[in-house]
Design brief:
- The complex is a heterodimer of chains A (263) and B (123).
- With 263 residues, chain A is of the alpha/beta class.
- Chain A contains 8 helices and 7 strands.
- In chain A, strands 3-2-1-4-6-5-7 form a 7-stranded mixed sheet, with helices on both faces.
- By secondary structure, chain B is mostly helical.
- Helix content of chain B is 80%, strand content 0%.
- Chain B contains 4 helices and no strands.
- In chain B, helix 2 runs antiparallel to helix 4 (71-116) and helix 3 (56-66) crosses helix 4.
- The chains are: A alpha/beta (263), B mainly alpha (123).
- Chains A and B meet through helix 1, strand 2, strand 3 and helix 3 of A and helix 4 of B.
């Protein structure tokens, strides 16, 4: 997992923006033709000036055709999974010099108006990685008991392994990264179970991780891929990866501007 | 320790297998389907049994030195070690190729997107 030459982004990022912070909303998608158009419309209606990037992870439906009419799109030439898709978006954010990128799932579970909540929380804490938690301040998406317990165990292991402040929703896909986190994750991003493991890596390599309450919606289409025995297997493997991260040699995340330059 | 010489049939079978397999490996290596490391490791599958069959006394001595009662235990141990080394190397190589493949897919997709795309949509 050492950074390799191929890991380096192809282009150097432009100089940091001097005025308003540039925010990229990364939307990883796989067969989300039913939701992606509506989600992009919602983001545009906000009028908040966010740029959007849809990363189509090799969909076989009309996701790309719908998305490309409304947003910048990258179509992966074959399916890489959520980790590979999100890292593609992060690389884009890095090479285009964005101040922040926010991951919003393409299935519509993450209301776009919550991006502002993440930005405000980041401004207050200066966290490099800001997680949107559905459990802090009440479970807004009424997730299952098993999921809540799984999240709780993973959060506890994360806390023990990294001595970090208690997180409540380490599996949340709604998250914001600043330039430092973007530079770090453009180099390396977990491909198995990316949400909790990226937190473990970030903590291990000295990034500041924080959490803020967000509202989430119930899934309108499709079902979760993590259910039954898969959930148990997911949890065991995630816990193992988190513990493994403790033994990684620390690498310094490459920052392209000093902390004082942060907007 | 045993001092039995292998039966003629065993010698013939092992010799024929070793000859054909080594020929196959050498041809593959010449066509660059295998590298020298692969040739060396895979040839052990032919060489180790052949060594034990053609030189039974040496096999007995080696077994005695290793502290095992039967030479064939030493032979299977040696073959198992070769297989482990090979599987380890293949696993590392597969993961490296998988990583490179993923990174190439990302870079190619981003370049295609940059070529095809215009200005980023701003809400």
């Amino acid at each position: 997992l050492r950074p390799q030459s191929l890991d380096q982004p192809l282009t150097q990022p432009p100089a940091p923006s001097s005025g308003r912070a540039r925010v990229l909303v990364i939307i990883p998608c796989f067969n989300e033709a039913r939701m992606i158009g509506q989600l992009l419309d919602e983001i545009h209606k906000l009028g908040a000036g966010y740029d959007t990037l849809v990363v189509d992870d090799g969909s076989s439906d009309a996701t790309y055709e719908i998305a490309v009419a409304k947003s910048e799109c990258v179509r992966l030439i074959c399916n890489l999974g959520i980790g590979g898709a999100v890292q593609t978006g992060i690389k884009y954010a890095h090479s285009h010099g964005y101040d922040f990128c926010v991951q919003v799932d393409g299935d519509g579970q993450h209301p776009p108006d919550q991006v502002q909540a993440l930005l405000e929380a980041q401004a207050g804490t200066k966290a490099n990685l800001m997680i949107g938690s559905r459990y802090r301040g009440g479970d807004t998406d009424r997730s299952t008991w098993a999921r809540r317990q799984g999240s709780r165990i993973i959060a506890r292991v994360l806390g023990m392994a990294s001595h970090a402040a208690a997180l409540t929703d380490p599996t949340s896909g709604l998250r914001l990264m600043d330039r430092k986190a973007i530079a770090f994750f453009a180099q390396r991003y977990p491909h198995d179970f990316p949400e909790p493991i990226s937190i473990a890596w970030a903590l291990r390599h000295g990034l500041k991780v924080a959490e803020t309450p967000v509202r989430m919606r119930a899934r309108e289409h499709g079902t979760t891929s993590i259910a039954g025995l898969k959930a148990l297997s997911y949890m065991v493997r995630v816990v193992f990866y988190i513990l493994l991260a403790r033994f990684e040699p620390r690498i310094k995340p490459r920052d392209h501007r000093s902390e004082s330059d942060q907007p | 320790m045993t001092n039995h010489s292998p039966a003629l049939q065993t010698v013939i079978v092992v010799a024929v297998f070793a000859a054909f397999y080594m020929r196959h490996l050498l041809r593959r290596t010449l066509r660059e389907s295998l590298d020298l490391y692969d040739l060396f490791m895979l040839s052990m599958i032919a060489v180790v049994p052949a060594a034990f069959v053609f030189f039974p006394r040496a096999a007995d001595t080696a077994a005695e030195l290793a502290g095992v009662a039967f030479p064939f235990v030493l032979m299977f141990g040696a073959l198992l070690a070769v297989v482990f080394a090979l599987v380890h190397r293949l696993t590392v190589r597969i993961h490296r190729l998988e990583t490179q493949n993923r990174l190439l897919i990302q870079e190619v997709s981003l370049m295609r997107g940059d070529e095809a795309g215009g200005a980023t949509a701003r809400s």
